[in-house]
């Protein structure tokens, strides 16, 4: 099968405007690899199986694994309040951080410098961010929460987060081509992200203070599978696959475990995580029943169709959502403006009863040149609708603001109806 994928990869790159990609497949501990394209369109350096790509938010599962090691050592209690380890922190348990239910504003990307104190300084700022819902109430993807977990690792281990990552994961797992920062990455053959039109990014990594959430970790697809293999082989990590919270109907997984996204498919459980940084995207999927894992790393273009094509040849994937034109849309419940620190989304009905979504990036997303867009919303199922614009996943209208209107617009992150936030 990998020979087929190896032959198909250059064609998929060209079709989707992806400069370069690396793929690795692990079946029963045997790893096969492929790579194609270039790491940087400005230099033409060829992508190889030894090339490093950023893995973005897949880093969160590595951070969760560092925490679970501490749990097994008896040094961290999942159900203890975070303030047990970080005095003065707002109400939330370690478990709630690990499954994205802590409820505070999660898209906080403040750069607190490059020193070893950056995580401590970052966590100190989180007391100022809004609490969107009560801890444990619901799922809302939370980048900041994983930075807090990284800080717990630092405090308990007494060492900087990146040193803990190297000493407790990279070295024992034989991950020889993994780089925790640009200074390590430059020692390897390393991909550069690309934005629209295949233009290389001018910034390689985001802030060090967001490293536990996925701002800069890079590695080969092979090393990423070494990490996945540890989760297949080590019974200590099986608890991470237990569902902690059911996800809203947004075309993601069925539930979230302790770090992992869980897919309850007809053929059985598949787990994994996705990652995105500036101009780079990655996916990791694991099918434990077949003892199979696949990692796909890319550096620009439109990688999702490529990833779906390759992963779909290797394992079962969720069905793509299809609009249901016969289902009515409750415009009165959905209409309104929903906000977060990184976006403002307005949902409105026109004279023909059609529902429209208008998205405007704010803060760091605007700074990173994310484009505003407007699209019609089409009925799917329940309170979940599908944007008509290709490439955009379902959105769900969740909760009740007390007047019969949705309290949240959920895209993975719960954006609250304006004027619906609660105090920090």
TrEMBL record:
It comes from the Bacteria. Pfam families: Beta-lactamase. SUPFAM superfamilies: beta-lactamase/transpeptidase-like. Residues 7-307 form the Beta-lactamase-related domain. Signal peptide: none annotated. This is CubicO group peptidase (Beta-lactamase class C family). It comes from Nonomuraea soli.
């Amino acid at each position: 099968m990998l020979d087929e994928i190896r032959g198909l990869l250059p064609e998929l790159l060209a079709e989707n405007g992806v400069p370069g990609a690396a793929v690795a497949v692990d079946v029963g501990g045997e790893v096969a690899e492929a790579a194609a394209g270039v790491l940087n369109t400005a230099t033409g350096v060829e992508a190889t199986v030894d090339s490093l790509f950023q893995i973005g938010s897949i880093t969160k599962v590595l951070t969760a694994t560092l925490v679970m090691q501490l749990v097994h050592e008896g040094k961290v209690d999942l159900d203890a309040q975070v303030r047990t380890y970080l005095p003065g922190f707002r109400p939330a348990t370690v478990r709630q951080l690990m499954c994205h239910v802590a409820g505070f504003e999660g898209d906080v990307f403040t750069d607190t410098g490059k020193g070893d104190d950056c995580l401590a300084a970052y966590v100190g700022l989180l007391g100022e961010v809004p609490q969107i819902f009560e801890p444990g109430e619901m799922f809302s993807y939370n980048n900041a929460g994983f930075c807090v977990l990284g800080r717990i690792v630092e405090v308990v281990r007494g060492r900087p987060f990146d040193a803990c990552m190297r000493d407790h994961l990279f070295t024992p797992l034989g991950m020889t081509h993994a780089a925790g920062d640009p200074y390590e990455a430059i020692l390897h053959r390393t991909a550069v992200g690309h934005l629209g039109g295949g233009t290389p990014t001018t910034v390689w990594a985001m802030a060090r203070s967001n490293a536990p959430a996925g701002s800069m970790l890079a590695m080969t697809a092979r090393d990423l599978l070494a990490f996945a293999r540890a989760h297949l082989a080590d019974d200590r990590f099986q608890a991470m696959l237990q569902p902690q919270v059911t996800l809203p109907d947004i075309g993601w997984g069925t539930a979230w475990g302790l770090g992992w996204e869980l897919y309850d498919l007809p053929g059985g459980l598949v787990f994994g995580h996705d990652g995105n940084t500036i101009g780079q995207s990655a996916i990791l999927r694991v099918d434990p029943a077949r003892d199979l894992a696949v990692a796909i790393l890319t550096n620009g273009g439109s990688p999702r169709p490529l990833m779906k094509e390759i992963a779909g040849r290797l394992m079962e994937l969720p069905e793509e959502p299809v609009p249901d034109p016969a289902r009515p849309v409750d415009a009165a419940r959905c209409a309104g403006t929903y906000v977060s620190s990184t976006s403002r989304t307005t949902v409105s009905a026109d004279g023909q009863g059609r529902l429209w979504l208008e998205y405007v990036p704010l803060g760091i997303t605007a700074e990173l040149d994310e484009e505003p867009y407007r699209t019609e919303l089409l009925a799917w199922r329940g309170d979940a609708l599908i944007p008509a614009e290709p490439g955009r996943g379902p959105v769900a209208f969740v909760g009740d603001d007390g007047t019969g209107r949705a309290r949240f617009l959920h895209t993975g992150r719960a954006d609250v109806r304006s004027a619906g936030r609660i105090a920090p």
